[in-house]
Predict the 3D structure of the following.
Amino acid sequence: MASKDKKTEQHIIDTAMHVFFTEGRLHATTQDIADTARVNRTLIHYYFKSRDQLFDTVFERARLESIRETQSVLCAALPFRNKIEQFVEILLLRLQTYPFLEISMTASIQEGIYLKDKPEVFMQQFITEVQQEMDKGTIQRSNPVHFIMNLFSLVVYPFIVKPLNQHLFGLNEQEYENIVKERKTVILNTLFNN
């Protein structure tokens, strides 16, 4: 039997990631992915025994990437506002690249899949940092968890309810994209005391 080619395997994973999380075809079949990747469906089954195994592989890669990106920013030795600004930029970029990733992660959380690991240690350190900023008066005083939940919500919400927002506000694709471009400034102005 021939050995598996890492380049081909990576091409299949990249294509599946695009199909699932950029195009939003979360229920795409192995045939859909094979057609998009321009490979034979049998080849996908050679690398991944089933569509579920491929989805799990892609999802786990995205999940670990998300944790790594979050940790790299939230643990960086940066002034607090710069850290939040950089985090918002990274999260917005990820959501613009993979607009359906957060929906998938949220659904997985509901099923108990995403929460199989222990809580991230860096998040406890970030909570302490948020409390210190509250003590300085940089941000409004409350439970630090509220600040963090607001941070994530302000960034993620426009992506997970995009069709609803477009409908409610009568926005076309370009108009909505312009709203998203303004998010960073709106988020920072909302979270920080000026």
Notes: Residues 51-74 form the longest helix (24 residues). DSSP finds ten helices and no strands in the chain.
